[in-house]
Amino acid sequence: MSRKLRALARLVRLPAALTVIGDSLTGAAAAGRLHTPRTWALPVASVCLYWAGMALNDYADRDLDAVERPERPIPSGSVSPGEALTVATGLTAAGVGVAALAGGRRTALVATTLAATVWAYDLVLKPTPLAPLGMAVNRGLDVLLGAGDRTCAAALPAAAMAVHTFGVTALSRGEVHGTSPAAAAGALACTLTGAATAAYPARTAPATTRGSVGEVAAGAFAGSYAAAVGLAQGRALNEPSAEHAREATGVGIRGMIPLQAALLSRYGAVGTACALAVGAPVAAKGSKAVSVT
């Protein structure tokens, strides 16, 4: 990989894209649309919009990063601000375009709204107390992306992912100067809420999986998610240092995969959940080479 490609991979947090693939699939499973062929193109739209947000994040934070994180691509000189903005714009257009082609008018509307909230978060909300809420809305919309015209059916998994994201984002604000016990406790409460939601049986799950494979798989994935993310957040609660905040944030981002797997299992998509879960160790390994935070 060339130096420029490596810098671009760091700019968009390349391995973190694995954490958004399950969003639209979860929404589709909840809405009964997982077997629609075009649904499987929607994770591509999610990845494009996620990468766009990461590039835009570094563009917006370039002056702050020059002081606090000079190793990042823009302050280190590996990527220019103009290049980062171009990448963000191009990926945003690609994400909305793929969503429109794969899901039609309703999905295009959700994708456009998601793109707008991503840009609003990075350019306006991030320095404010509304940042965790803004990021939570982004993640919830990404789940609804897969629901087509049945967005209400995907409201619960969208809320579960949004709650988790709220906690992780609130904790991430202490990555440089340390967090607070209140922020760590709040993040832990969000994790436990997400796990409980994912493990609770869904009335809409197929009869062949309700009360058996689906529930067992949902419980197992939810338990592994709560254990991994909760332990890291517990360490931040016990000692709210910047190091523990960074660790808990990274674990929380990667923890979205088992949470998505639990939610997919909740709606009977156990095979898809297991396939998605393979991405968790890949994301963990990839984050050693390219940071996800």
What does this structure look like?
The structure is a single chain. The chain is mainly alpha-helical and 293 residues long. Helices cover 72% and strands 0% of the residues.
Order of helices and strands: HHHHHHHHHHHHH
Mean pLDDT figure: 92
Q: Major sheet, described briefly?
A: none
Low-confidence spans: 206-210
Overall outline: globular
Secondary structure: number of strands: 0
**Distance separating the two termini:** 21 Å
> Structural class, from helix and strand content?
mainly alpha
The portion of residues assigned to helices is over 70%
Radius of gyration: 18 Å
Determine the strand fraction and express it as a percent band.
under 5%
Q: How many helices?
A: 13
Keywords:
293 residues, mainly alpha
In a nutshell, what does this entry contain?
With 293 residues, the protein is an all-alpha fold. It is built from 13 helices and no strands. Helix 3 (42-60) crosses helix 5 (81-125).
